[in-house]
Each structure stands twice: as structure tokens, then as C-alpha cells.
Design brief:
alpha/beta
Length: 251
């Protein structure tokens, strides 16, 4: 039997939104590859379920709240001396609707969770990365930020922001040995799928699948495999990249 290559051996990783969906799959794969995984999620029960399964560490966090992210940092550094990788995976959307009908509180929620969270984790962990002269930030955006669809305007825009912010971060942080990359998944089998479709029916699924050349939704394992590569030393020359994991959706 071929020996497993431990691509993240002795690395400490924070994965936001790690209690379900893409985040949970990343947490499991990263742990199998030797990482010490902090499963950070607003749903502490979900985070604990995944962390117990993989031997990780569960932390409750609201990524849109400055005090909560600061407390996450405090909790993490009580247990670990060093953090090597931060995966900004937590995200949300509004239901499909004409842009002018989205209420202000919905707009604020989408931008706070999808965008402000990236700012807050950078604020609290980039200084640590700079001290260590190394670090990896991986932001999970969306094909919606590359090839937007009608009626998801503010969600599309938030993911477009993540992509441009990541490229800017990559340029600024490269001299400090810090890499920043983006994964753009197509809609996948996660708790957010129903929100993207508006209603989860066979007809709506078929309509959306017709836009994906490979003919299927992304699975959490697809995103986890791409994330493992970008966070590993195998990608040491890759920064500022946007990797579409979308079955050809954005071609």
C-alpha cells in the first residue's frame, strides 16, 4: 500500500464555516494530511461534531463581528503557539430576487459575512504571519464573482470583492512570504444550495446543471482537494490565483 503523503504535516489551520459543507470536508482532508485543524463556526455544535471526528479543536465565532474574531484569536493562541493557514470559508447569500427588493439588513449580512470577515481575519492573523515570515490565506469565493447571474446581485458583488481583495492581499503580502489564493466553486451540495436555486426542485436543479459542462454540482470533496493543494508547499510558487472548481461553468 502506497504511503500517504502528509502534505500539511505539523501545520496549524483555521477553517471558518468548518462545521458543515465545504468547510467540514476541508477539515477532514486537512486532518488526514497531518494538519492540526481549528474548526471555527457560528454553529458550535456543528464545529464540535467535526472536530471530534478529526481530532481537531472547535471554536465558536461570528466571522462578521470584530469582537468575536478577536476572541477566536485569543482562544486559538491559548491552545497553539502558531497558526500557518487561514481558510476564509464561511459565507452566506440572499435569496434570488431583483436587486432593489433586497432589504438593507440582508445586504449588510451578506457583505459582513463574505467580505468583512476577510478583513477581520487579516487584521488578527496577518501580523502573526509577518512575524513568522510565512503563512497562507485561502479565500473561498464563488463562480458568481466571475460569471454573475441575475437576481443574486449583492451576493455576486460580495464574491467579486473577495476575488479582488485576495489579489491585492497577494501582492502586498508576498514580500513577507505570505501567499493568498482564491477558490471559486460552482454551486454545490451544501446547505446554501437551496438559497442559490430559490427552490430546490428537480426542475430547478436540471436548469442549473444545464449550465455546467461536466453535468454535476460540485461536491465538498472537490473543493477540499483543491484547497489542500493551494495550502500545501506543492503550491509554494502560487499566489494571487483564482482557481475555478466549477465543471466548466465559467468557460
Amino acid at each position: 500500500m502506497k504511503e500517504l503523503i502528509m502534505q500539511l504535516k505539523d501545520k496549524t489551520v483555521i477553517i471558518t464555516g468548518g462545521g458543515s459543507g465545504f468547510g467540514a470536508s476541508m477539515a477532514e482532508l486537512f486532518a488526514k494530511n497531518g494538519a492540526k485543524v481549528i474548526v471555527a463556526d457560528l454553529n458550535l455544535d456543528g464545529a464540535r461534531r467535526i472536530s471530534e471526528k478529526i481530532g481537531g479543536y472547535a471554536v465558536e465565532v461570528d466571522v462578521s463581528n470584530a469582537k468575536s474574531v478577536e476572541q477566536m484569536k485569543i482562544d486559538v493562541f491559548k491552545k497553539y503557539e502558531r497558526v500557518d493557514i487561514v481558510v476564509n470559508n464561511a459565507g452566506t447569500t440572499h435569496l434570488p430576487a431583483p436587486m432593489e427588493t433586497i432589504e438593507e439588513d440582508e445586504f449588510d449580512r451578506v457583505f459582513n459575512v463574505n467580505c468583512k470577515s476577510v478583513y477581520l481575519t487579516a487584521k488578527h492573523f496577518v501580523p502573526h504571519f509577518k512575524e513568522n515570515k510565512s503563512g497562507v490565506i485561502l479565500n473561498i469565493a464563488s463562480t458568481a464573482g466571475v460569471s454573475p447571474r441575475p437576481n443574486l446581485n449583492w451576493y455576486n458583488s460580495s464574491k467579486g470583492w473577495m476575488i479582488l481583495a485576495s489579489k491585492t492581499m497577494a501582492v502586498e503580502l508576498a514580500p513577507f512570504g505570505i501567499r493568498v489564493n482564491v477558490i471559486n466553486p460552482v454551486a454545490g451540495e451544501t446547505p446554501l444550495l437551496k438559497s442559490f436555486l430559490g427552490e430546490d426542485t428537480p426542475e430547478m436543479r436540471a436548469k442549473f446543471l444545464s449550465t455546467i459542462p461536466l453535468g454535476r454540482f460540485s461536491m465538498p470533496e472537490d473543493i477540499a482537494s483543491a484547497a489542500l493543494f493551494l495550502c500545501s508547499d506543492s503550491a509554494s510558487m502560487i499566489t494571487g490565483a483564482n482557481l475555478e472548481v466549477d465543471g466548466g461553468r465559467t468557460i
